Structure formats: C-alpha cells, structure tokens
Amino acid sequence: MYSLRVLGAVCAFTVCVGLGSNKALAVGVAAGTDITNTAEVTYAVGATSVTTNSNAVVVRVAEILDVAVTRQSPANTAVGASSTQQEIVFTVTNAGNGPEAFRLVMDSVIGADDFDPTPASPSIYFDSDASGDLSPGDTPYTVGSNDPLLNPDTSITVLVVNDIPATAVDGNVGITRLTADARTGSGTSGMIFAGQGAGGTDAVVGMSGAIAGSTGQYQVAGVTVSAVKSQAVVDQFGGARPLPTARINYTVTVQAVGTGSAANAVFSDDIPANTTYVPGTLSLNSTPLTDIAADDAGEFSSTPGPRVRVTLGTLTQASGTQTIQFAVTIN
Amino acid sequence: MFKGNRKVLGIFALIACAFGSQAFAQTQGCIVLKSTAEIEKEVVNDKGEKSKVLVPAGKVIPGTEVVWTVTANNVCKQPSDKVTINNAVPEHMTLVPNSAFGPGSDVSYSLDGQKFAPAGQLTVQESGAARPARADEYKHIRWEFKNSLQPGASAFARFRAVLN
C-alpha cells in the first residue's frame, strides 16, 4: 500500500530500533499482554459533525528469554586444603518478561587456576532457608527435576558446592562456574521459538542468548598467629633480680603469617601466680589502654582469675606486629 | 484481509449513497477509519541489497518499535471537511519523538487528551515549576487535515511507538 520510498524517509527521520534496544531493559511489558489501539476521526459533512472509531488493532507481547547469573560471594572464598562442602553463592535472575524455568549446570574444570575444586555430591543447592550459606535446610538441585521456575525480574539464590583437594597449598586458586539457561531454549539473540512463550505467544531469545554464567574462586588461605613473650625484671635496688616487690615488664608480640586472615583475634594472658598486676600499665603498640572493660581494646579483670585481655580484631600478615605491654610486681 | 474489507465497505457505501439518504450516510459514517500495526523487517533482494519493509506486527517483544498507521477513507459522494484523527499512544508504549506525521495535516500532542499543542509547546509541572514536556510524555496525538477529504480519497496518519 505504501511505497518503500516513503518508508525509507520515515526511517531516516526517526530512530530505527530493533532487538538491540532491549539491552537496557531488565524486563519489559509482561509476555502475553495485549496492546490495543483504536483511532478516532471527527469530520463534518455539510453542517453535520460526525465521530467514528477505527477497528481495534491488537498486538500481543511475545516472551523474551533472558537470564543473568551473578556471584554473591566475595571475589575470593578463603578455604583450607582438604576442606569439604565449600559453597560459593550465586543468584540466578529471570531477565525476561515471562515466567521461565532454568536449567543449572556447574563446572569446576576450568583453566587459568591452580587446582580443580572437586564437585560435592550434590553440587548445587538452593538456599532454601535464605541463610546465605550451605545449611541443612537447603534443597539439592537435580537437572530436569526441580529446575527453578522464575517470574520476570525475580531471582533465586543458588549455592555451588565443592571439596578442596588435599594437594592444594597456601595461595592456590581454584575456579568454579555456574551456568543457567532457559528451558524453552537458548541460542542466538532474536531466535524465535514459535508458540512456546508464556500464554502461547512466541518466545524470542534475548540479548543474553538465554544462557548466562558466572565464576567464583576458592583461595587456599592458611594463617598462623604467633605470640612471643619477653620480660624485663627491675628490682628496687636498680638491678634485675626477681626479688619480692621487684617489677616485671612484659612485652608480647603477636603476628599473623600466611595468606589468610584471623578473625576476632583476642590476646589474653593470665597474671602469673604470686605476682600482682600494676594498674594502668597495659598498652597496645605503645598506646596506653585503660583497665576498664569495653571502653577501649584492653581490659584487666580479676575474675575468674586475674588476667589482661586485648581485642586485636581481624589480623592478617599485612597487619604487622602487634605489641602488647603490661607490668606486674612480685608479691 | 485488508483489501477484502475495504471492498465490502466500498460496496456498502455505494448502496447507502444510491438510496440518497444523507441521514443514513451520517449514521453509518462517510469516513471509514482503519488502524494497522506493523514492524520493520530487513529484507535482502536478489542483488544482495538490504531494505526495510513493513510487516504486520502480530507478536512483538519489549523494545520493539511498532509503526501504527491510521487510514481514513471517504466512502461517500460528498467531501468531508475538518477531518481530524485522534489516537492515544497505546498503553505500555512510548511515542518515538518526531515520528508522528500525516501528509497535509498539522500534528499536535496532548498529555491529558484535553489540551493539544504542537511539539515542544506543552509543559508539565515538576517540583512546583513548569518545564517543557518530553516527547515520551505525550499520550495523545492529533492530526488536523487542512483540506477536505474528497469522495473516494484517503488520508493517512502514522506514528511510531516502542513497546516498554
């Protein structure tokens, strides 16, 4: 009815968008929705004004098949060699516009790492109890049996679980991957699965190809925290003999060595028998600490037995040496 | 389908006019209005040259641009004056800027279906201040044809909108 020339001109003055414009849309109008248009015309015949409607044109929204997989765990998941049931957390999101089931596949034989994590059995779980880690309430996944059915723009949390080989050494990295693809089908963007979309409409492969994956990595992290204690005795005669009333100055150095981190490190030392703590002598890295609990990192307590405590927080090799000092007198 | 319908309507109009009843013609209408939805499809000819054609938009996915065309056909024997086509931007769709046109017509827009103005002359209130309305905020389009629509003649109006 209209010549190509006219159409060409229209296209030149407007933005011609195709499939490429979907990229920014996480999800659009729901698949199966009917878009209806009716135009109206008013005109005059002689002195009489008339209003008429057009036919109603209906366009049905087809289903886009799109999926996104995102790692929720940190870039590195610290593990020990020989540890078992180590999870990496992912979310699988239906980025399309219709309800869709997705198949999940995990793979731990991936290059560019130091070791291959060993898939646990089962190796994929749903985080059913929303705890963010593998726990007894989580449901194992079996391909084709309980493929997650997701509504548009909704997600499910998935745990990929591996064992760490005994041969892995400190600093080694092992990569695992989770892949999800639409059960209706995946492939080249724009591919059509006629009549297989939600509500019997067509399903069209979106920008993701209806398949997506994400990797996570384990890093074998060992950490050793060591403490070295030294003492200096000062007697009342200016010497260094351990006489009654002589003072003993203790210095303790704490150090973390390795690639891991020691969380919630606390230094605690009982005051030796037959000695008495000298109030106000506790310090961390030359900064004085009070003897009162909770006002700073240090405290002296007399129950159950006399002792000093210093909270060091998370220690890594980068934290460097922590120096704790306190003094006692010999009874 | 399209051609067939028109033929039937044309015959019907002729019968109406043959009876010479103006009242009957008015009741049934002198202008038959037809709306179509199409999408552009790229085709390659024998020489390998690419061009775009419009094909019926049966099913579309979000992000697709739909070309809506409204055709007004005068099936009476007398001209129709002051022909004005109104079309709301369909629900779930966003008007493509500068896409509305119709040969021989002045195009205006509206946010509420009440107040119409040429492109760029509508304003919206935002945070207590008026600002020019964007084309994607236009919800209604109006084509006012400058000349009478002669018997047997057609006028057409077109706009493009993207499925949200």
As for the number of domains of chain B, it is: 1
* CATH-level-2 architecture of the largest domain in chain A: Sandwich
Tell me how many strands of chain A there are: 26
| Rg of chain A (CA only) | 34 Å
**Unreliable stretches of chain B:** 1-27
Structural class by helix and strand composition of chain A: mainly beta
The biggest beta sheet of chain B is recorded as:
5 strands, antiparallel
Sheet of most strands of chain A = 6 strands, antiparallel
The portion of residues assigned to helices of chain B is: 10-25%
- Count all strands of chain B and give the number: 12
CATH class of the largest domain in chain A: Mainly Beta
Identify the CATH homologous superfamily of the largest domain in chain A.
Immunoglobulins
For the record, give the distance between the C-alpha atoms at the N and C termini of chain B, rounded to a whole number: 29 Å
Describe the structure.
The complex is a heterodimer of chains A (331) and B (164). Chain A is mainly beta and 331 residues long. Chain A is built from one helix and 26 strands. In chain A, strands 18, 19, 21, 22, 23 and 26 form a six-stranded antiparallel β-sheet that branches. A five-stranded antiparallel β-sheet of chain A has the order 6-8-13-10-11, with no helix packed on it. Chain A has a five-stranded mixed β-sheet with strand order 7-17-14-9-12, with no helix packed on it. In chain A, a hairpin with a 2-residue loop joins strand 2 and strand 3 (48-53). Chain B has a single domain, classed as Immunoglobulin-like, CATH 2.60.40. Helix content of chain B is 15%, strand content 46%. In chain B, strands 2-1-4-12-6 form a five-stranded antiparallel β-sheet, with no helix packed on it. Chain B has a four-stranded antiparallel β-sheet with strand order 5-11-7-8, with no helix packed on it. Chain B is flat and about 60 Å long. At the A-B interface, helix 1, strand 1, strand 2, strand 3 and strand 4 of A face helix 2, strand 1, strand 2, strand 3 and strand 4 of B.
